[in-house]
Amino acid sequence: xxxxxxxxxxxxxxxxxxxxxxxxxxxxxxxxxxxxxxxxxxxxxxxxxxxxxxxxxxxxxxxxxxxxxxxxxxxxxxxxxxxxxxxxxxxxxxxxxxxxxxxxxxxxxxxxxxxxxxxxxxxxxxxxxx
Length: 130
Known about the structure:
Distance between the termini: 25 Å
Number of helices: 4
Largest sheet: none
Structural class: mainly alpha
Oligomer: single chain
């Protein structure tokens, strides 16, 4: 019987690939000139929370470090803050504290999801590899 063997290296590689895609979308979406938020103000915040939550999870799963949850959270938070600041120099764009707060909320959710996913991977999927 053939099956797929899940390994930590395989999970990290998949997370790194998806992280690159999400990071590219975040950077292009944040720095594209004259690209405004969606019509609904709240939909814009949902996009920020979901995007930074997903990015934090992907970063956390791709790291091979002692504390990937904290490192992933810091990387995503710095990226979100940096992109909000960079929007000040992009025509038709402006950074906002509301967007940064939504990014931070997404980062917190992503950190919780990362901790849960790593626990699941370690204890349930890969019991013999830890």
